[in-house]
Amino acid sequence: MASAPEDPVLERYFKGHKAAVTSVSFSPNGKQLATASWDTFLMLWNLKPQARAYRYVGHKDVVTSVQFSPQGNLLASGSRDRTVRLWIPDKKGKSSEFKAHTAPVRSVDFSSDGQYLVTASEDKSIKVWNMHRQRFLYSLYRHTHWVRCAKFSPDGRLIVSCSEDKTVKIWDTTNKQCVNNFSDSVGFANFVDFNPNGTCIASAGSDHTVKIWDIRVNKLLQHYQVHNCGVNCVSFHPSGNHLITASSDGTLKILDLLEGRLIYTLQGHTGPVFTVSFSKGGEMFASGGADAQVLLWKTNFDELHSKDLNKRNLKRLHFDSQPHLLDIYPRTPHPHEGKVETVEINPKLDVIDLQSSSPPVVDILSFDSTTTTDTIDRTQPDKNGEDISAYFMNPSLVQPGCSPAVRKKTEDVSDLLSDSQRSVPLAVTDALEHIMEQLNVLTQTVSILEQRLTLTEDKLKDCLENQQKIFGAIHQKS
Question: What is the DSSP secondary-structure string of 292-334?
Fold first, then answer.
């Protein structure tokens, strides 16, 4: 049975990545889609039919995150090779590289004005970068385990982060302090983001849950238990009325936040789904996962365009105004433990004339990259290893309710790990752990020095400017 006109519809498949897709991002004008993959490449897809795709070569390991700048003139990417790259999204594909962290970078995010970039890493730190000068500004240290994601609030005044230490933290970008802390005793959040007006945050949990917190009253508003495996990513519709979720159970689910219920389950991927994102206007969304495919969907269910939304929000700028439906405020938790009536959409059954796009791909080597395509092919993970990518993204997601193929592969990897661990003497293991602790201390020391150097530079600049003003005043008097 075909979907009703108001239901979401799968429009196209994009095939070109050789391994799992880890991140997707629409250009601000909605004409292009950037994707990151386990195959070490970024790809830029034109949404026009038959248009060629660009594959950007430069990272030397899994690319974990990609995002367009708000102006659309830059692409930022983070990788397991510990670097962040800024790319110009055209056929030249020039890039600059930041030696950003001392461990894999897990996420990148631009502020809404495009002036800053925040990066999160397995070195337990969050770093903020100035895009105009392309330089490091400061680090945020309070997490005690890998930081999986960090995002700016819409107004840029806050940053939300989540970590495997089972906390979600809110940071003030002005005083660089942690101002709020949500903790979870069951699982940790894989992904976290602000809703469009910045009053709430949504977290995608390794414990299969999606939670929405009101950061004004520090209250859990909604709690959804609709997936059978860990949730890897969420994306708010620009209206703020709907949230889409991507899970290792192979499905996407769409939640109606005003009614507090699940309304759609989308089946299109053949393995864990790692990423999902709405376009800026909300007319489309894209998803990617372990099957190495990128799926482009037409939204249909929420026709509120961004211009209408901006007009509506302008009327609500006064702090004392009454709570609005768009604030999702306040609502009781929704456990969803009973059977829920939802619309299930399986495009492979419903859509016969689906477009499958395998456009001509142009390889673009980064101008500062000395890596050849041959060496990249050698260092790529197994091309049939989509399941291993599920293990990389989050071992704890692979649980009894998940795909048996993924679980078997993970067990194989665990066996390999335990074999190698058994061959390492205990004294050596202790020594390595001690070295890692020392490296963590050194990393924090270097970060503090970086911050002090930045402050010293700024003070020197102010001193020089003041000196020039004094000389100018003396010269005028004489």
Answer: SEEEEEE--S----HHHHHHHHHTT-STTSPP-GGGT-S----
Task: Give backbone dihedrals phi and psi of 280, rounded to 5 degrees, phi first.
Answer: -60, -40
- How far, rounded to the nearest angstrom, does the alpha carbon of residue 107 sit from its chain's CA centroid? 5
Tell me the pLDDT tens digit for each residue of 59-77: 999 999 999 999 999 999 9
List the one residue out of 118, 124, 101, 186 whose CA is nearest residue 157: 118
Contact 40, 59 (CB under 8 A): yes
Query: Which candidate, 222, 267, 265, 266, places its Cα nearest to that of 240?
Result: 222
Q: Give dist(CA 366, CA 38) in Å, integer.
A: 18
- Residue 18's closest CA among 426, 408, 361, 410? 361
Residues constituting the chain: 478
321 φ/ψ angles, rounded to the nearest 5 degrees: -65, 155
Asked whether 225 and 208 are in contact (CB, 8 A), the reply is yes
Cβ neighbours of 216 (radius 10 Å): 12
Beta bridge partners of 86: 76, 96
Q: Enter the tokens of residue 82.
A: 């510990």
The CA distance from 334 to 259, in Å, is 10
Which pTM does this prediction carry? 0.72
Q: How distant is the alpha carbon of residue 166 from its chain centre? A: 18
**Largest Cα–Cα separation, the chain:** 89
Positive or negative CA dihedral for 415, 417, 419, 422? negative
**Residue 368, φ and ψ in degrees, nearest 5:** -100, 10
Q: Are 159 and 143 in contact, with CB atoms under 8 Å apart?
A: no
User: Tell me: the pLDDT tens digits for 94-140?
Assistant: 999 999 899 999 999 999 999 999 999 999 999 999 999 899 999 99
Using DSSP, state whether 43 is helix, strand or coil: strand
In the DSSP assignment, the letter for residue 8 is -
Q: Are 21 and 292 in contact (CB under 8 A)?
A: yes
Output the CA–CA distances (angstroms, integers) from residue 116 to 44, 127, 128, 170, 461, in the order listed: 22, 10, 7, 17, 21
The per-residue DSSP string of 190-222 comes to EEEEE-TTSSEEEEEETTS-EEEEETTTTEEEE
> 289 with 20: CB under 8 angstroms?
yes
